[in-house]
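Practice problem. Given the sequence and the SMILES for S-adenosylmethionine, write out the predicted structure.
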Amino acid sequence: MTTAQTSPTTSTAPPPMRLRELAFGAACAAALRAASRLNVADALGDTPLTAEQLAAAVRTEPKPLRRLLRALSCYGVFAERPDGTFTHTDMSRQLRTDDPHSLRDIVLWCTEPWTWDAWPRLDEAVRSGRNVVQELYGKEFFPYLNEDAPESADVFNRAMTTSSMQSARDVAAFLDLSGATSVADIGGGQGHVVASLLEKYPSLHGTLLDLPRVVANADPRLRAHGTLADRMRLVPGDCREDVPVKADVYVIKNILEWDDDSTTRTLSNVIRAGGPGARVVVIENLVDDTPSMRFSTAMDLLLLLNVGGAKHTTASMTDRLTKAGLVIDDVRPVNPYLHAFDCTVPG
Ligand SMILES: C[S@@+](CC[C@H](N)C(=O)[O-])C[C@H]1O[C@@H](n2cnc3c(N)ncnc32)[C@H](O)[C@@H]1O
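Answer key:
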């Protein structure tokens, strides 16, 4: 039996069925996760394959694999042809590990086991305004991830690597650091942004501050014997406790989405470390200026669940930065989904 190709982006179902479809959103997320973990996209090349051929390649039962692919095809992820074979679509191709724009690790990150523990408690989080991770696992999200869920931490780091490698080039192209001698990336993950900046400015010195387990896996260019190691300092630490780094420019990208207390402490540590005249560039995805409200509002709710945080609007980010004591000189888009708040520590 062949399945009619349903429109990948819009459903033509009447509202009661559409609501049912939405309520089954978890099935779509689970199907994406299953296909990613089974590496189905890697097994499918340019030649269409039957479910039996794919099942042999990824070592599953053919009938359930066919059902999985049929479900995903309804969303435009893989396509079923009239002869019953399956082909790639633009979206399924991005589940391949070797695709230059691969989103496989991001799909895994968005569907990690902890998310399935947390989503059912969204009503609690909405009632209390607090994260649910503390109650679920007895500790804050990042310590939980790094200490108790190393596989999820690795998925997170790989997902961050994917998204920050994609955005690091844009950030480096956007930021004019001529005249600066040093830059520090606070909560900079594995350091793709700072590495791109050091490559752009051959005499610039850089520092990466992040949690110990993250810094230990920094971009190889930044570690001992790496191409940029002689201009680089790696600082394992907690930016809410201390920012022991003096630099001309501080970059803080996709960090200030957690709870307000953590934001306030981080900003005041950066201001103290930089001193008057230091430049602080805060880069965030804004929920009021985004190419996808569905994605941004979903991330906003996930941030409430895990760190009691939120995606910012231009106004809420401006408010936090101003209250911390920074002077905002400029707010500009870095690319269609990132905005930079260019600030100075006043004298
Ligand atoms: C969403 S990621 C952003 C990473 C990077 N700035 C980027 O844009 O690609 C958040 C980062 O904050 C780091 N982080 C979380 N808590 C931290 C803390 N208390 N001190 C320093 N870094 C922290 C995480 O390890 C992670 O690398």
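Check your answer against the key. The chain has a mean pLDDT of 94.
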